[in-house]
Q: What sequence folds into this?
């Protein structure tokens, strides 16, 4: 199973959750919300073959944490994965939208400067702004839109520039899911939970949410769930191969 967007460090017991993930055989991208959270979160994944840690600066925290862009740059050599980053255009974040855009541009510039990264990207109520930024920063790496909820016209633009998508259970059960999934290239889709938020209440890692996401995706693809899993694992293999070519300094994560 694959969970390409999970906040491992925000579980009540991250170490125990990491053990649950390993036992379940889940390949997981552990995203962080601030650069300061990255070193400790990366330690949780140390020695675990199925967990990779991403360096993030969540757009909802940009107002308070924009000074950590410098730390982001310093830590970027320690991982091939970036997330959660992006832009949020919701009512609570709109007053500092310009600052978010500047910070996102700076993070994409940093990724370009080190030769590219795999990026898990937040785009709530800001899909247009995010995609325009990605168009400007094509050398930033492989963008993956996490839990995309924007317009279908922007999906087409994102697909044109090589963007990937990570999808979760509530997204696949929404009214617009069929029209959205139809537009996504099957070879650029991965599953996610965004745990421990939204669809995954409780204190334990939601193994069932991942398997149910696979079932829903198979339904949208009109194929057997085994075939859907094969496609997802083939996609992950391609992405990991792409990531392996991004230069690093320091330990792998």
A:
């Amino acid at each position: 199973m694959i969970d390409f967007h999970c906040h491992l460090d925000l579980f009540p017991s991250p170490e125990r959750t990491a053990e649950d993930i390993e036992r379940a055989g889940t390949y997981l991208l552990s995203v962080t919300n601030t650069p300061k959270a990255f070193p400790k979160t990366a330690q949780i994944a140390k020695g675990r073959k199925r967990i990779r840690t991403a360096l993030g600066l969540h757009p909802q925290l940009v107002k308070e944490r924009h000074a950590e862009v410098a730390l982001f740059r310093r830590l970027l050599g320690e991982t091939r994965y970036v997330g959660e980053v992006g832009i949020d255009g919701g009512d609570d974040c709109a007053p500092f939208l310009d600052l978010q855009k500047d910070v996102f541009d700076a993070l994409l510039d940093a990724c370009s400067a080190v030769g590219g990264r795999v990026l898990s990207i937040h785009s709530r109520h800001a899909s247009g702004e995010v995609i325009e930024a990605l168009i400007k920063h094509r050398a930033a790496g492989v963008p993956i839109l996490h839990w995309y909820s924007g317009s279908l016209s922007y999906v087409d633009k994102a697909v044109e520039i090589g963007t990937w998508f990570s999808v979760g259970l509530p997204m696949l059960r929404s009214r617009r899911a069929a029209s959205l999934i139809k537009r996504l290239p099957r070879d650029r889709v991965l599953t996610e939970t965004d745990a421990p938020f939204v669809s995954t209440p409780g204190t334990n890692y939601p193994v069932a949410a991942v398997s149910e996401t696979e079932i829903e995706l198979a339904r949208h693809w009109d194929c057997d769930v085994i075939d859907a899993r094969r496609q997802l694992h083939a996609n992950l293999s391609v992405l990991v191969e792409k990531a392996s070519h991004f230069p690093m300094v320091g330990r792998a994560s």
